[in-house]
Amino acid sequence: MRKLACAYVRAVDGFNAGLGRLMIWGVFVMAGILLWSSASKAFFDPSLWTLEMAQFAMVAYYVLGGPYSIQMGANVRMDLFYAEWSHRKKAWVDAFTVLLLVFYIGVLIHGALNSTAYSLGYFGKNSYAFWWDLITAFVTGGPDAAKETMGYIERSPTAWRPYLWPIKAIMLFGFILMLLQTVSELIKDIARIKGEEI
């Protein structure tokens, strides 16, 4: 069991660390988009896509960088008492609070699944059935069969009118990675409670 837990922690931490280091460069992507927005307004015809694309880049930066932030302990926390505690006591408190975080991320994943299903044209109440049908159609019939499962694809109501499913899928993927990372943190906290390190 310990080998499996160590392999899980190494795999999740390694993937999220690599993705997090890549997402650090997202600040420059956002800055480039906003710089182009300013230049196009000053010297050319204003670009319709820049502000909304900057918002999408910010969402991707924040959500895909979140698991790395959790891994590095860079998230905001109240250090009034925590800094003075022993490693074991910190591990107990962290293990409890990680369970609360798992619940919260579970709610986010549920909402993201519903929102992404809506953006792919599903307007019913059971989005899980839609996802099952979509995956089954894709596996058995390929992309064309999956397209038949989808309805009217949601677009932004702005002048640019981009499809919204890609950013919603990125959010869903990021929330799943956050859940995997919180489980990794829980495994590390349980190991620290036992006096071990993973």
From TrEMBL:
The keyword Repeat does not apply. It is found in: Cell inner membrane. It is a multi-pass membrane protein. It holds the Pfam family DctQ. It comes from the Bacteria. Keywords: Cell inner membrane, Cell membrane, Membrane, Transmembrane, Transmembrane helix, Transport. The chain crosses the membrane at residues 12-36, 48-70, 91-113, 163-183. Residues 30-191 form the Tripartite ATP-independent periplasmic transporters DctQ component domain. InterPro entries: DctQ, TRAP_DctQ. The complex comprises the extracytoplasmic solute receptor protein and the two transmembrane proteins. Part of the tripartite ATP-independent periplasmic (TRAP) transport system. Belongs to the TRAP transporter small permease family. This is TRAP transporter small permease protein. The lineage of its organism: Bacteria, Pseudomonadati, Pseudomonadota, Alphaproteobacteria, Hyphomicrobiales.
